[in-house]
Amino acid sequence: MSNYNIWKPIDEIPYDDLYFFKSNDHLGKLQIWLKVLGNEDEMLEIKFNGVQAYRIVQESARLKSLSEYPSLRKFRTSTDSEFLKWFEEESVEQFSDWGLVHYILFNIDNVIDVITGLPVSVEWVPCLD
Predict the structure, then answer these.
(1) What is the C-alpha to C-alpha distance for residues 27 and 23, in angstroms, rounded to an integer?
(2) Model confidence band, residue 128 (pLDDT cutoffs 50, 70, 90)
(3) What's the mean pLDDT in 93-112?
């Protein structure tokens, strides 16, 4: 059984209007940009360092998780999730002392899961695209 906690990295995130814009994966660093419907001026940039695993899945393909954990929406963290347990098993627990955290970012079109043990940076940035 997974245990999820609310994660509010910054105030005033309009969770119900966030959609996935793009991502960049380079040398263990993952950047994710989420935009807000109707706002072309800025986007939410989330920077993960030391990424051990991640996945981006269409929301409709995560119906089982949503059914089992209906409160999972918005942003969550877990140190006891099925994804984290799978990673620990697959890696033969070689990272068990790294303090890994599973970050879950629900948005209107998909679910983003990231496993890292390092601090995460979240900020609003101007839209340049």
Answers:
(1) 13
(2) confident
(3) 92
Query: Residue 44 in contact with residue 25, Cβ under 8 Å?
Result: no
- The terminus-to-terminus CA distance of the chain in angstroms comes to 41
CA distances from 70 to 31, 52, 88, 100, 105 (A): 27, 26, 25, 24, 14
pTM comes to 0.89
Task: Please say if the pLDDT value at position 89 is more than 90.
Answer: yes
| Beta carbons within 8 Å of 70's beta carbon, 6+ residues apart | none
> What amino acid is encoded at 55 in this protein?
R
Q: What is the DSSP letter of 108?
A: S
Query: What is the Cα–Cα distance from 105 to 77, expressed in whole angstroms?
Result: 9
**Overall number of domains in the chain:** 1
Residue recorded with tokens 């620990």: 88
CA separation, residue 89 to residues 13, 49, 94, 100, 104 (Å)? 34, 22, 9, 13, 20
Domain around 110 = 3-126
- Taking residue 37's Cβ as centre, other Cβ atoms within 10 Å add up to 10
